[in-house]
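Example protein as discussed:

>
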Amino acid sequence: MMGNALLLAVNAAVCMLIIVRLFTYRRRGAQHRAAGSWLAYVLMVACAAVVVRIIFGQYTSVDWAETLLNIALCASIYAARGNVMHVFRGPASEPVIGDKK
């Protein structure tokens, strides 16, 4: 049971890190894309729901694989400096989600 409590704490912390990085993203000249804004919003709401449910004891079981996936998502968001379009776009030759060509 102690391992599960540790995984819950790590999962909550990682979700908070994702929220903080997405919330503090600055465009710095990057083009605004509505799809990217909505994706960031949905990710923040989903991560916040996980954190709130853990705090209030409704999220009682977490798997190590889920925690590793959240850590990987967090690392990729930080590597992209909070720009979710950089995380989820394909190769440069492919259009970005929401692009009109």
About this structure: The helical segments are 2-23, 34-55, 64-79, 84-88. The longest helix spans residues 2-23. The chain has one domain: 2-23+34-87.
